[in-house]
Amino acid sequence: MLSEWSLESSRRTFRAGVPYHFQLTNAGTGEHEWAVVPGGATDESEALFEVEEDWLPSGATISRTFTFPGPGRYDFVCLLPGHLEAGMRLPVEVLAR
Q1: Distance between CA 59 and CA 90 in Å, rounded?
Q2: Of the candidates 25, 33, 21, which has an alpha carbon nearest to the alpha carbon of residue 8?
Q3: Which of 24, 68, 78, 80 is buried deepest, with most CB atoms within 10 A?
Q4: 58-76 burial, b if ≥16 CB within 10 A, otherwise e?
Q5: pLDDT, tens digit, for every residue of 33-87?
Q6: Is the pLDDT of residue 97 over 90?
Q7: Whole-angstrom distance, CA of residue 63 vs CA of residue 78
Q8: Residues 73, 92: contact at Cβ < 8 Å?
Q9: For residue range 27-44, what is the model confidence (pLDDT) as tens digits?
Q10: Which of 6, 8, 9, 77 is closest to 43 using CA atoms?
Q11: Which residues contact 34 (CB under 8 A, 6 or more apart)?
Q12: Residues 6+ apart with CB under 8 A from 6
């Protein structure tokens, strides 16, 4: 779930190479986007997967599937200007399959 300046997930540990189904809900009052980036990344060019803000206006719920390519630390982030700096980063861990 995305809301004003935070991201939540029902799980924080995943396995590499396994497809995961994500249901994304924007519970905030403004639009947000959802991206998967390598741990600590801050630039949209580093996104491994991204759902643009056009798909996540306030109140929207969508589903997407993503497979983590390898083990390590990743982050779920909102890369809209100012959102990452306001705290929209959720670190997750990906274990080897």
Answers
A1: 20
A2: 25
A3: 78
A4: eebeeeeebebeeeeebbb
A5: 999 999 999 999 999 999 999 999 999 999 999 999 999 999 999 999 999 999 9
A6: no
A7: 16
A8: yes
A9: 999 999 999 999 999 999
A10: 77
A11: 2, 7, 22, 24, 50, 51, 56, 76, 77, 78
A12: 87, 88
Instruction: Give the 3-state DSSP-derived string for 30-58, with helices as H, strands as E and coil as C.
Output: CCCCEEEEECCCCCHHHCCEEECHHHCCC
Which has the closest alpha carbon to 41: 96, 97, 92? 92
Distance separating alpha carbons of residues 69 and 18, to the nearest angstrom? 9
Can you list the domains of the chain with their CATH numbers?
A: 2-95 (2.60.40.420)
Token pair 């306001």 in the structure block, residue: 86
Tracing tokens 């996104």 back to the chain, one arrives at 47
